Amino acid sequence: MEQTTAGRWSRAFRAAFPATIPVLTGFLCLGLAYGVLMETKGYGPLWSTLMSAVAFGGSMQYVAITLLTTAFDPLQAFLLSVMVNARHIFYGLSLLDKYKGLGKVRGFLIYVLCDETFSLVSTVEPPPEVERRNFYLCVSLLDYSYWVVATALGGLLGNFLTFDTTGMDFALTALFVVLFLEQWSRRENRPAGVIGIACAAVSLAVVGADNLVIPAMVLILAVLLSGRKWLDHPERGEDLG
After folding, report:
1. What are the residue ranges spanned by the domains of the chain?
2. Which helix (H) or strand (E) holds 225?
3. What angle do CA 238, 240, 241 make, to 5 degrees?
């Protein structure tokens, strides 16, 4: 018997939600922290929520707090945005096959793509009974809603909190560490993880902490492409060992 539209979406949601629970817990802390920080800088819940809903830039939103509270320099803001978000170019390239043929929702999936959603979409496969389009859309919508709602809550709570907020922006780094450890728990993902750490360390040593993002991503891409056959078939390396 053919499933109804509601039934298909229900299946997709039930399949997607458990996979997004780590993002939910992380975004709850991150969004709350961002909303509180915006409130302490004089931007109320409406502004912080609009920023999350429209910009949805994650780390760039934290950086934007400084840009909003200092003399505005359009060129600096543009270059900083490119530097911070350049990794999305590589994300997009790697998801060309996964997002191929998804129809009208493809544009929205690209718009709300973030680090955490990329991590899930690139590693979690939808169950056989769930359509790819519905699954990926549910994952993206859930992650997006977690961030926006948590930001709104943080903005509202910021009116009642008076403690020192120094260090709250470290929540973003903490979430990346949690996501990395989750991926590291899978043996097949470890070679890519080692490559990422090594390339980041090389970039840090060569260009410094302020400029390492783009060089590190380029180096990671080059290494992954050159070692693609080995990464796709690690058993070959074991046979040669």
Report:
1. 5-185, 187-241
2. helix 213-226
3. 65
> Residue 200 in 3-state DSSP?
helix
Per the structure block, which two tokens stand in for 34? 């961002």
Cβ atoms < 10 Å from Cβ of 127 = 10
Instruction: State pLDDT tens for residues 165-220.
Output: 666 666 666 766 776 787 788 787 788 788 888 988 998 899 888 777 778 878 88
Question: Is residue 96 within 8 Å of residue 121, measured between CB atoms?
Answer: no
Nearest CA-CA partner of 176 in 44, 30, 57:
30
- Residue recorded with tokens 């907020």: 165
Q: Cα(first)–Cα(last) distance of the chain, in Å?
A: 52
Question: If we measure between CA atoms, which residue out of 186, 45, 216, 197 comes closest to residue 120?
Answer: 186
Residue 188 amino acid letter: E
> What percentage of the chain has pLDDT greater than the value 70?
84
Tens-place pLDDT, residues 15-24? 999 999 989 9
User: Comparing C-alpha atoms, which of 17, 24, 57 is closest to residue 153?
Assistant: 24
For residue 84, give every residue at least 6 positions away whose Cβ sits within 8 Å of its Cβ, in sequence order, or none. Answer: 57, 59, 60, 63, 213
- Cα(45)–Cα(53) distance, integer angstroms: 12
Asked if residues 176 and 192 have their Cβ atoms less than 8 Å apart, the reply is no
